[in-house]
Amino acid sequence: MIELTNITKNYVRGAEQVQALRGIDLNIAGGEFIAIVGCSGSGKTTLLHILGCLDKPTSGNMRIDGADVAKLPEAKLVRIRRERIGFVFQQFYLIPGLTVFENIALPLVFNRKPKDRDRVMALIELVGLAHRVKHSPSQLSGGEMQRVAIARAMVNNPQVIVADEPTGNLDTATSEKIFALLQALHGTGLTIVMVTHNPDLAGRVGRVLEMKDGRIM
Ligand SMILES: Nc1ncnc2c1ncn2[C@@H]1O[C@H](COP(=O)(O)OP(=O)(O)OP(=O)(O)O)[C@@H](O)[C@H]1O
Ligand SMILES: [Mg+2]
Predict the structure, then answer these.
(1) Mean pLDDT score, 143-159
(2) What is the pTM of this model?
(3) Which of 81, 122, 124, 150 is exposed most, by the fewest CB atoms within 10 A?
(4) Helices 142-154 & 100-110 angle (0-180, nearest 10)
């Protein structure tokens, strides 16, 4: 489904060039559950951003379902990002002034879809927050906030969930619950790519990629 060939990413930081990715070759098949592990600064987030079309590589080739991403017009790329990929981050990034329901429904608004109340409610049930629909994020625990973020990532019915340390801010028991939720989504056919510093969780997915200095070991 996603094919990366010799992908590099350089950042410019002042006078310095940072080689965040130094030649990544990676094929991801639909339905995989992949964990990316590695030291801080090894390029995990950079790789996720490229996989999720949030950022462009400096060089190399990336194909999604056979189509060369570099040749796609920006509008098409925006559509891929909105409709096919769901993002989950360590810091949740919920909007404080919106309720649980409204946070989850937000991508529907950006996608100019009519508010699909039933879909949002079904997702709220799926992540176990039916009793929190009208709460604001500040009234939720960390695990509840991450469940809202996962439901939000799911609302446009993506094929891929890209998660950057989704349990990084959570205690062990809560991490287990979030991981179980991701496993359940994977069980429905979703492709999941998850960065984690938790070796126990990484050991329980289909494939583990270890990154070091911008390369997959
Ligand atoms: N926007 C940026 N500008 C300049 N350098 C950057 C930028 N983003 C990342 N880098 C650098 O690129 C390298 C890889 O960063 P990346 O965030 O991908 O690492 P990571 O493996 O996700 O680390 P962590 O585990 O700490 O999240 C690091 O050296 C980082 O300092
Ligand atoms: Mg990172």
Answers:
(1) 93
(2) 0.93
(3) 122
(4) 30
Taking the C-alpha atoms of residue 103 and residue 100, their distance in angstroms, rounded to an integer, is 5
Q: Are the CB atoms for 46 and 40 separated by under 8 Å?
A: no
Domains of the chain: 32-56+81-216 (3.40.50.300)
Ligand 1 closest atom vs CA 49: 18
Mutate to test the pocket of ligand 1, among 8, 22, 46, 216 (most ligand atoms within 8 A of CB): 46
Cβ atoms < 10 Å from Cβ of 138? 9
- Which run of H or E residues covers position 62? strand 59-64
Residue 18 in contact with ligand 1 by CB distance below 6 A: yes
Residues with Cβ within 8 Å of 60's Cβ and at least 6 positions away in sequence, in order, are: 4, 5, 6, 7, 8, 23, 24
Helix 142-154 to helix 117-126 angle, to the nearest 10 degrees?
140
Closest alpha carbon to 104 in 115, 164, 112, 197: 115
d(CA 107, CA 120): 11
